[in-house]
Automatic annotation (TrEMBL), chains A, B:
InterPro entries: PurS, PurS-like_sf. Its EC number is 6.3.5.3. Keywords: ATP-binding, Cytoplasm, Ligase, Nucleotide-binding, Purine biosynthesis. It is an enzyme of class 6 (ligase). It is found in: Cytoplasm. Belongs to the PurS family. This is Phosphoribosylformylglycinamidine synthase subunit PurS. Part of the phosphoribosylformylglycinamidine synthase complex involved in the purines biosynthetic pathway. Catalyzes the ATP-dependent conversion of formylglycinamide ribonucleotide (FGAR) and glutamine to yield formylglycinamidine ribonucleotide (FGAM) and glutamate. The FGAM synthase complex is composed of three subunits. PurQ produces an ammonia molecule by converting glutamine to glutamate. PurL transfers the ammonia molecule to FGAR to form FGAM in an ATP-dependent manner.
Length: 77, 77
């Protein structure tokens, strides 16, 4: 089974990478960009039947820094 | 309007970051992880009515390196 983990910065946490992307988009002439936030996407190929709780455990222990980041898990198939 | 851009490495492209995550998960005792691929998630807050074509243009020109990466756009609201 496959699972996707989306890791995003909590609101209020400064995001210099997002700011840099925002600035670069404006430099390329893209108007109408209000804000950009950068996050991570981690695609896991797991043994069949891995419980959601185990994936959440992976997120808490390694994939996300829960002090400053939120995570969302999406199971695929 | 908001849009999410998912940038993933094309299959066949080596992914050292994913490999490192895989190794670290095993080190933490998580069994049954077959593969890990790391990608990027970019959340855009755009002016209302920004066409899909413009977002694709942003991806091709800046957000993704289309030689080695695929991108997928998801419009939210």
């Amino acid at each position: 089974m496959k699972a996707r983990v989306f890791v995003t910065l909590k609101s209020g946490v400064l995001d210099p990478q997002g700011k840099a992307i925002h600035h670069a988009l404006e430099g390329l002439g893209f108007a109408g960009v209000n804000d950009v936030r950068a996050g991570k996407l981690i695609e896991l190929d797991l043994a069949e039947g891995t419980p959601q709780a185990v994936i959440e455990d992976m997120c808490r222990k390694l994939l996300a820094n829960t002090v400053i980041e939120n995570f969302r898990i999406e199971q695929v198939g």
